[in-house]
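Q: What does the assembled structure look like for these inputs?
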Amino acid sequence: MDQSETKMQIAVDAMGGDYAPGAVIEGLTRALYDFPDCDFTLVGNTAKLGLYLHKYGIADHPNLKLHHAESVVEMSEPSAISLRAKKDSSITECARLMKSGSVEALVSPGHTGALVAATKVLNRTLPGIDRPALAASLPHRHGRFILIDAGANPDCRPGNLIQFALMGEIYAKYMLNTANPRIGLLSVGGEDGKGSSLTKPVFKALSDMPINFVGNVESNSAYEGACDVLIADGFSGNVLLKTSEGLAKMATSWLKKAIKRNALRVLGAMFSQGAFKELKSTFDADEVGGAPLLGINGVCIIGHGSSNPKAVRNAIRAARDAIRFRMNERISQRLQECKATVADLESMF
Amino acid sequence: MDQSETKMQIAVDAMGGDYAPGAVIEGLTRALYDFPDCDFTLVGNTAKLGLYLHKYGIADHPNLKLHHAESVVEMSEPSAISLRAKKDSSITECARLMKSGSVEALVSPGHTGALVAATKVLNRTLPGIDRPALAASLPHRHGRFILIDAGANPDCRPGNLIQFALMGEIYAKYMLNTANPRIGLLSVGGEDGKGSSLTKPVFKALSDMPINFVGNVESNSAYEGACDVLIADGFSGNVLLKTSEGLAKMATSWLKKAIKRNALRVLGAMFSQGAFKELKSTFDADEVGGAPLLGINGVCIIGHGSSNPKAVRNAIRAARDAIRFRMNERISQRLQECKATVADLESMF
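A:
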């Protein structure tokens, strides 16, 4: 078998994130070493990238190509700019490469909104999916759970959340290696009747679907391990994600301050530092690297804006895993299986 | 001056919360000792309360009266039950005592939804307020911030959030002792254009109001101290609150487990335990005791369902503070000042 034919093709947005292009290229260097079964297309302003490629010794790497993109979508710019004023941005070029079939996946630690806009328009959604959703992996007491949507859709209709449930189920099967993932609905109050005008009809619909639906789940129960997949609209899902990040950071800083107040505490903390390192790795977003934007026709992995090289390398790993697992094929198949039920349920809204 | 005339009158729901009536009565005992300037009416099934009153030696306390309530609203029951099948519940009786003017404040570590329903119907909202909102106090890097609404209204219109901003401003002035509280709007993305169909019009409206509006604030930035008051709909506000509670609990449990894995770590943790205690007290919801339901015609303090005696005592302190500060008078005055602007803004929606 000719190896080059079977290689996975992945585009990497060199200009995405707060530490671009340095952190992206350093992460890509690690990925080139770790994943020889992938070909990479680095997308960005080629005039600016050369220096970094030489620095990391990958300028002539056989598995690396360059693709020029003139502009960059800044974090403060509106999402639609990737399709209007900055049609030549690195994000838009990545989506275009995936549209043409040059790559199967794209990885960007960039502007979530711009990535959603560009891939929705250029790559389209899978049949049966109206809106793509971001699937984040978070720790709970005994393992991890998948939060979907973690921030792609600030406004959702009930039908969107039903589709998120089916996509989340498939993604959890391979991410968490669980045969029959427990699906929970993010709500206020764990009881069946609790919720908002958005979640109440979704609760009814999910109860009627051929999935392992465990009912309403509050975010504190999700941290206790109440479900494998937590379904949410992108606004409250994003609040959950960012509250977790913010609090974890804050608690660490408070503890450090409290420890420094006294020498015995400093000594004690030195003895027990292994425990702190274990805790830190539980929360380490860099381990996961990036969240897939599920429902796009193609693989799109979105990294944190503050991605470091490790996070970039692991986001690339996530793209590779999604290709190998044939994630979209499986999602499409599951949607097809549930098509009749979903159509029935959606007609209710 | 006759002291009895000036005493503050507070109703306490003996049947609310997971550890009722024991924890409530123990907390009340402490409050009777600490706050001799208050008269208390303990509301619950009097036949069941006697034993506890004797146990804590307060059966004949001059500042304590009993008021009978036949039933209890269980946490799993729907909110409206306090007004329908359980019109004789301790929650409904507390609201009735406040309606008749027998008490100025009520304290309950009970069912938030049932308390909102009962007080809305029996006590009504302040003029200019359509919906009451729960104001929770949370820690940030340098102090605390007020989250409003923390869970009373799962569904909100833009006009509700404008009213929450004015109530939160007044509450923060005395809770945080800040002359000109910084008001932030909970959103996804800190930039001006980011948000949902609910938050975008609120952003515009708050920008036009005579308040210290600092724009969109993400929950991680709130933990960094980006604002003194964080405005949210009750659904995402509740997600923020419960994510914080869940994560703080989970992080503690993970750390304990990691420490126990090795004897040196256990020794180290013993040396540095003062630091852990400091961190724990930062997060200690019992210190605050209860969150006021702002906008009700009367003072209503809602405690956590798992309130212990310390939390009950501090929830009573919060009720006493709200009376002494003349919170509702100040909120009404502020609403009156901003009446023209708010009416203008609300007409936009």
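Chain B has a mean pLDDT of 91.
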